[in-house]
Amino acid sequence: MARALVQAAVADLASRYSGAGDDTPLDALEFDPPEGCFLVALLDGEPVGCGGWRVLGGASDPERSDGPEPGKDIAEIKRMYTAPSARGRGVATALLQALEDSARVVGMRRMVLETGGRNPEAIAFYGKVGYDRIENYGYYKDEPDCVSFGRDL
Predict the structure, then answer these.
(1) CATH classification number, 2-112, choose in 3.40.1380.10, 3.40.47.10, 3.40.50.1820, 3.40.630.30
(2) Is residue 97 over pLDDT 70?
């Protein structure tokens, strides 16, 4: 289920960004508790969304040390996605809340994320749920279309 949803998320990004998905270096092990978490959202028993967090400043992306100060208490959201058929039904809000709760339980004090200007739905969503724009960081920090957000837990 998780792989299919991640593939759908990357395909969505590719459609928005002229064939390019997300090239951020990721290792599935970064999402293993307690240093991370990856969740799949079900609606009526069907997988309709996914998302995860990993500790900022982890092993696979040397660029992540720029921007928000890396530390063992800052979590980065990755691969947040809701299938088109489930959008507008509270899936993303519930998924984000579950990710924040899981991060808080293991001592994370802040969540950060990056998205792109061609994803106005994500930009509107994160603003609506209390995330503030922050200085760009990470793999895409120098891309003109990068939009970064953060929120204290």
Answers:
(1) 3.40.630.30
(2) yes
